Amino acid sequence: MVGYLLTGVEPERPKNTSRIIPALGTMVEIQIRSGIDSVNAVAYDAAFKEVERIDSLFTDFDTTGAIGKINQSLPGKVVTAPEVVGLIKRALEISSLTEGKFDITLGRVVRLWGFKDETMHIPAEDSVKEAVSTVGWRHIKILDDSTLAIDSKLALDLSGIAKGYAVDRAFAVLDSLGVEQFLINAGGEIRCKGEDWTTGIQDPRNEGGVVQVILPKDKAVATSGDYENFFQVAGKRYCHLFDPTTGFPAETVISVTVLADDAASADAIATALFVEGSKKSKKIIEKFPGCEYFIIDKTGEKHYSPGFKKYIRS
Question: 254 CB contacts (<8 Å, ≥6 apart)?
Answer without folding.
Answer: 204, 205, 225, 226, 227, 296, 297, 298
